[in-house]
Amino acid sequence: MKLSGSAVLTPEGFRPGTVTVENGIIQAVETGGTLENTESFNAGNGYILPGFLDIHIHGYAGADMSDGSVEGLGRMAKALAREGVTGFLGTTMALPERELMQAAGSYRQYRRAPEPDGAQLFGVHLEGPFFSQAKRGAQAPEAVIDPDEGLFTRLWEAFDGEIKLMAMAPELPGAMELIRLASQKCRVSVGHTEADYDTACQALSSGADHITHLYNAMPPFAHRAPGVIGAAAEKARFCELIGDGRHLHPAVVRQTFRWFGGERICLISDCMRAGGLPDGAYTLGGQVVTVKNGRATLHDGTLAGSVTSLSECVRRVIRMGVPKEEAIWSATLRPAQSVGLDALTGSLTPGKRADVLITDENLMPRLVLVGGRVVYRAG
Predict the structure, then answer these.
(1) Beta carbons of 47 and 58 less than 8 angstroms apart
(2) CA-CA distance, 379 to 367, in Å (whole number)?
(3) DSSP conformation letters of 247-285
């Protein structure tokens, strides 16, 4: 299959060209011209992009990674693919060990027979349960605990060693020891934390290299107390930003891309099960969430993730003033790099999986390929 268009995203920017796909792999990317024949899909004035990769997403289309449902994972994967999200990390909540083990069981079963028309489930993002009670956000208070090396090891084994990212608060007892242990197996992120600047720096020197939804669920930056945000600016390799337009002011999003540099930003959705569904009452981590006018909150008004797909987050941050190329790279190559998947996906590079998104001029999906398979075609 040949995919041709006037705006193929390359490391040098958008160029006219053709992407050749065979046997699920990108075989060639040729720039300088387009094809007009029956073997090619011509994007016209649209864009040919790497598929979006969401490394922090709890649920979508009524399903949640933590449900322990194989059918739910398939429904989630299929709905995400239609949005141009070709890959994701199933993200858990802070839950009792028994429920996390149930999620691990369904994860293993799904990986053996995944949804053929769905986004690729590349692994697991363990968000919690080792968090600060004061900064737990929408995490259930009874499930938030201090670091436990034994529990991490049991979960690592239960998820078949496919935990790609683990978020935790570094100020808790035993946290630094767990960071050193876990970072030998997966990427470790600082999040849901009250850590001060020095503690965050220590964590980022002990094996953590990632920040969970920067600005959210952490102390604010202050000129005498720079905290996690100040430490992240100096030492973090990657920082997540929720791009739904509700968790962060547009000016903060624009300024963070300038301050940190786009090469360090991973756009995430932090989406919960209500994504793609109408307003109403839903659950997240065992707690009731009310979605009204696209805003998900607990009973006390605490934001409970988003209801926005990563593709919509990309469109929104572009409207906020982030350059188009930077916004797209922050939802493709950067997250792939951040969790060690960039040899497989994240860019239109020969030898990588053919996870490809063709959009119209407004970045709305027209054609989606996951591993070279057409999983969605508009109209």
Answers:
(1) no
(2) 10
(3) SS-HHHHHHHHHHH-GGGEEEE--B-TTTTS-SEEEEET
Give the count of alpha carbons within 13 A of 94, CB side only. Answer: 25
- Whether 201 and 273 map to the same domain: the answer is yes
Per-residue pLDDT of 163-216, as tens digits, reads 999 999 999 999 999 999 999 999 999 999 999 999 999 999 999 999 999 999
Sheet with strand 287-292: strands edge to edge: 280-284, 287-292, 295-297
The alpha-helical segments, DSSP class H, found in 134-225 are 149-158, 175-182, 197-205
Look at residue 41 and tell me whether its pLDDT is greater than 80: yes
CA dist 265 and 88 (Å) reads: 16
246 and 148 in a common domain = yes
Residues 261 and 174 in one domain: yes
What is the domain count for the chain?
Answer: 2
Catalytic status, residue 355: no
Catalytic position from the list 64, 67, 244, 270: 270
State the Cα torsion 25-31-33-35 to the nearest 10°.
Answer: 0
CB 352 within 8 A of CB 13: no
Q: Which domain holds residue 13?
A: 2-47+362-377
Contact 17/3 with Cβ under 8 angstroms?
no
Question: What is the pTM for the complete model shown?
Answer: 0.96
Contact by Cβ (8 Å): 167, 192 = yes
Residue 153: Cβ within 10 Å count: 13
